[in-house]
């Protein structure tokens, strides 16, 4: 199969590299010449475990290449994937589709022969209809089918998620297009991944429903955690107790500082808007969005309370800034609200993150950065675990205790147990454990 991937960001690059690894002939396109130049020189612009090697291997095998020229990449392709960004629109929170539609217009002008155009970007219900309309309007003669094929990749585990998916969702009513998509994903039959072929609108909505459900699950356990703290219960044991029921399932029941990242905040908001526009509001998701926003801000208040009610003039050391481990992504990270809340309350904030400091710098004003966890804790009045990087799972508490002015540990990811930490003379607070 010849595949053109339009957009070489996170989704495009991971998907393109994985398709090439399946043996397909893949060309990744991006408008940003600096990005393409870097990729051509073997430099990967994002941090994703295993991606460097995967891209390198497939480029060497001649199956993967990069270009800024859309037209030659699209001409002769069997499948053209649209994997451009769909950021939240300023003001109303609706997904901004201008990049998707611009890509559709350009693709239309370049198609030769039967081509399946696939929206991989997360797009609101009905976007596939509009993409098809744009293509048919721009190139009435083009032989084309427009398919929805949402991605379910987690950052930090994207390659594994792509190669061993729980399911593949393909939205098309066109049998010929379904056959092309089957061929594209054929290598995954070996992994027995279920392929769900359904209507295009159903596929589009499935993506939003999946993310909104997961965000709801997290928000549910976060609120149960708050209640645990008040009634003397332990949220981790509650999560285990309910998660062992197969109807509930144990994943995504880890209480924390609120979800962040490139998908959940944006997709929940977009679903809320779509539902309102269609007169079928999803109030449970509206509440999830509001609760999660408030929670991120509440985390700064939790740290302040752990410091005895005031952080004015105190030094607070943050371990982890990215929205989750194994990524350098700072989008909607809880750390953004935590830093703002602490600074507003007069704290001096110092931070360390294994991969995220470069991305954090332009977003977080007035904080200083350390080169490791111990350096970060030097002279601090409180240490806060914000992101559960592996590097923070076996901290030397005696060393930290000796370095710090006050021994306060706020563990927003429940990495440690109270006993372990208090043994070293720390005052310990975590999430949902009374
Ligand atoms: C998510 C979806 O999992 C993925 O299928 C979709 O395609 C894109 O969005 P991602 O944002 O990369 O992936 O990360 P994920 O691991 O799902 O975590 C999202 C957020 O939820 C993080 O902030 C994480 O810390 C938080 N989270 C997750 C919890 O607080 N508790 C949990 O139990 C799980």
TrEMBL record:
Gene3D superfamilies on file: Cytochrome c1, transmembrane anchor, C-terminal, NAD(P)-binding Rossmann-like Domain
NCBIfam families: NDP-sugDHase (TIGR03026)
Protein name: UDP-glucose 6-dehydrogenase
Organism in which the protein naturally occurs: Methylobacterium brachythecii
Annotated Pfam families: UDPG_MGDP_dh (PF00984), UDPG_MGDP_dh_C (PF03720), UDPG_MGDP_dh_N (PF03721)
UniProt keyword annotations, A-Z: NAD, Oxidoreductase
GO MF assignments: NAD binding; UDP-glucose 6-dehydrogenase activity
Recorded metabolic or biological pathway in which this protein acts: Nucleotide-sugar biosynthesis; UDP-alpha-D-glucuronate biosynthesis; UDP-alpha-D-glucuronate from UDP-alpha-D-glucose: step 1/1
Similarity field: Belongs to the UDP-glucose/GDP-mannose dehydrogenase family.
PANTHER family: UDP-GLUCOSE 6-DEHYDROGENASE TUAD (PTHR43750)
Catalytic class of the enzyme: oxidoreductase
Presence of the UniProt keyword Cell inner membrane in the record: no
Binding site for substrate: 152-155, 207, 252-256, 260, 324
EC id: 1.1.1.22
PROSITE patterns xrefs: PROKAR_LIPOPROTEIN
Residues where NAD(+) binds: 30, 35, 86, 122, 155, 266, 331
Highest rank taxon of the organism: Bacteria
SUPFAM superfamilies associated with the record: 6-phosphogluconate dehydrogenase C-terminal domain-like, NAD(P)-binding Rossmann-fold domains, UDP-glucose/GDP-mannose dehydrogenase C-terminal domain
């Amino acid at each position: 199969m010849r595949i053109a991937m339009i957009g070489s960001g996170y989704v495009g690059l991971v998907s393109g590299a994985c398709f090439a690894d399946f043996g397909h002939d893949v060309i990744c396109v991006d408008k940003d010449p600096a990005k393409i130049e870097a990729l051509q020189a073997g430099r990967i612009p994002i941090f994703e475990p295993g991606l460097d090697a995967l891209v390198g291997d497939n480029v060497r095998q001649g199956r993967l290449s990069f270009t800024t020229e859309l037209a030659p990449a699209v001409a002769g392709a069997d499948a053209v994937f649209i994997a451009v960004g769909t950021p939240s629109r300023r003001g109303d929170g609706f997904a901004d589709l201008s990049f998707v539609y611009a890509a559709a217009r350009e693709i239309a002008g370049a198609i030769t022969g039967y081509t399946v155009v696939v929206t991989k970007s997360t797009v609101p219900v009905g976007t596939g209809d509009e993409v098809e309309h744009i293509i048919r309007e721009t190139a009435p003669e083009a032989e084309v089918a427009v398919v929805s094929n949402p991605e379910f990749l987690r950052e930090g585990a994207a390659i594994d998620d792509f190669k061993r998916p729980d399911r593949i969702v393909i939205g098309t009513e066109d049998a010929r297009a379904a056959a092309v998509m089957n061929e594209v994903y054929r290598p995954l039959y070996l992994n027995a991944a279920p392929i769900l072929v359904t209507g295009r609108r159903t596929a589009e909505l499935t993506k939003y429903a999946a993310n909104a459900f997961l965000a709801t699950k997290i928000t549910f356990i976060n609120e149960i955690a708050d209640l645990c703290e008040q009634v003397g219960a332990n949220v981790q044991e509650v999560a285990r107790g309910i998660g062992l029921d197969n109807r509930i399932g144990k994943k995504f029941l880890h209480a924390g500082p609120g979800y962040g990242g490139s998908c959940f905040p944006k997709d929940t908001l977009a679903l809320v808007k779509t539902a309102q526009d269609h007169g079928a509001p999803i109030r449970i998701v509206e509440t999830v969005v509001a609760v999660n926003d408030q929670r991120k801000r509440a985390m700064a208040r939790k740290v302040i309370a752990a410091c005895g009610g005031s952080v004015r003039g105190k030094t607070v050391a943050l371990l982890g800034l990215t929205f989750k481990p194994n990524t350098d992504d700072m989008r909607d990270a809880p750390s953004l609200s935590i830093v703002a809340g602490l600074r507003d309350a007069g704290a001096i904030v110092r931070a360390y993150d294994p991969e995220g400091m470069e991305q954090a710098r332009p977003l977080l004003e007035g904080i200083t950065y350390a080169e490791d966890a111990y350096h970060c804790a030097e002279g601090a009045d409180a240490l806060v675990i914000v992101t559960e990087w592996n590097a923070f799972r076996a901290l030397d508490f005696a060393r930290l205790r000796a370095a710090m002015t006050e021994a306060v540990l706020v563990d927003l990811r429940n990495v440690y147990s109270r006993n372990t930490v208090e043994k070293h003379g720390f005052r310990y607070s975590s999430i949902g454990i009374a």
